[in-house]
Amino acid sequence: MATKRIRLPGPPPTEGSGSTPLTIEFLVEQPFLATREHARFVEFAEACAHYRYIGVCHGRPGVGKTRSAREFSSFPDLGEYAALRPIAALLGEKVARCRAVFYTVSVSNTPKTIDAVLGLNLIKLGYARLTVAGGSQDEITHDAARIACPLVIVDEADRLTIKSLEHLRDMADRHGFGLILMGMPGLEKRLARYAQLYSRIGSRRCGGS
C-alpha cells in the first residue's frame, strides 16, 4: 500500500533555524489489480459457495488475501439498512453485486459477539437480496432471508476461540452457507485438532504461494 505525505499548515521555518516543515504521512489504497492469485481465489470462493464447503485459506501477511476477499465479496455497508424497509437505488446496486458476507473476527470474540455482528448482517443481507430480486418486501419471511446468503468469508480466523469456531460451524449448518476461514500459516494445523469441524473442510488454499 502506498503512502502520501502532506504539509501541515503553519508558519514556514525561518532561514538558518535548521527546522523543517511539519508533515503527516498516511496510507493510500491503490487501485485493485486482478492478478493470477486473485483469479485462483475467485475460483476457490465460487466452489465454496456452490458446494457449501467449509474452506481454509492461509498465507503470509501482505500477500493480498484480505484484499482479494473484499474485492470478491463486494459486501456493502448495511449499517443504515433496516429489514423490510425500501432500499435506496445505490444500495440496491451494491446488494445485487454482493457475492458474500465479509466478516473480520475481533480480538475478543464469543458466540454472542459473532451473532451481534455476523448474524445480524446475514439477516440484513438476506432481506436485501430477496427484496432486490423480487422488487418488493412482500411475502419475504425471516426463514427465507436467513438462508439467502451463499457464502461467508471470515478474516483473521486465527483469533477464533474453540466455542466461536463451533458456533460458526453450527451457523453454516443452520443458514446453509459456504464458509471460508482466512488466516496465517498454521491455521489449518490448528483446525485439524477439532475433528468435527476439520472433517467438514472440503477445500483448502494457500494464498500468496
UniProtKB/TrEMBL annotation:
The keyword Kinase does not apply. GO terms for molecular function: ATP binding. Residues 51-191 form the ORC1/DEAH AAA+ ATPase domain. It comes from the Bacteria. Keywords: ATP-binding, Nucleotide-binding, Plasmid. Transmembrane segments: none annotated. InterPro entries: AAA_22, P-loop_NTPase. Residues 1-20 are annotated as: Disordered. This is ATP-binding protein. It comes from Sphingomonas naphthae.
